[in-house]
Amino acid sequence: MQITAHQIGILLEGTVEGNPEVTVNKLAKIEEATTGSLSFLANSKYEQYVYSSGASIIIVNEDFVPAQPINATLIRVKNAYSAFSVLLEKYDELTKSKKVGIEDPSFIHPTAKIGKDVYIGAFAYIGPNVEVGDGSKIYPNTYLADNVIIGKNVTLYACVNVYFNCVIGDNSIIHSGVIIGSDGFGFANNGDGAYRKVSQIGNVIIEENVEIGSNTTIDRATMGSTIIRKGVKLDNLIQIAHNVEIGSNTVIAAQTGISGSTKVGENCVIGGQVGIVGHITIANGSNIGAKSGVNNSIKEENKSWNGHPLATYRDSLKYLVVTKRLPELEKRIEELENILKERLK
Known about the structure:
The protein is α/β, with parallel strands linked by helices and about 350 residues long. It is built from five helices and 40 strands.
């Protein structure tokens, strides 16, 4: 499909700088773009490619000031990255197959309630009293246990498992291999070295507009609910334990683990491989660097943290500088000790 710079400018509420009638028919990274491509510049590290790119149209920020002539037509917007994501979403909608209907073989219990325009793939299992909202897509080999509620326009990709009584809100996307509602890690020591399983009778509630990456696991609550609030984005391979609560619009990168009963605030950004202990709280707006270890509650809002033990981002950089100097400091101490020994003889 061809579209002009003028049309894109209207869609993105941007300003066209150059030929408004130039057309594009494909999307491309700025360093790989050729004639007929639409690209964007959001990171200054890639500015060099703006001047050599073959792209016909490039989306840039309003305040971008070119250092050299540019051949492409520019579309200036408030946020180039967000604007380009809008175009990617539109492109995705146009190119994805709009699956509807129920494939065979699949199992749908007679008590299940299936909404309008739903897709259910082959070998899916829809258990007793399950509800699937209008426009939702259940891909092959997905398992929905008893009493699960799926909202409207939800996408569950292949091999997703949702255990009994769990709830998934409207417009959420759950990628392949995700397990929602498996038992929390609850065991009681009998006193003789053996452990007795503590039954996990709660559920998981996922609110609307949540996206969960492949092979992430979210454990059901011991009692009550493990809750993922609206707008949360979870990467692949994340472990969220029982009774955890993740605040709205928080994003968490891959291989992070959050222990039981921890409450993560709203609008937090948590890097990859972060470990968070149980029964603590993370303040709203916290930004936690990759591979950090969070052993205590974070009470100050909108601050950046890093390292293990956790420190403010600035302090963690100071500690790193000092750590790198340790061999030198050790050598100087040894020299001073030798001098003292000589003088004390």
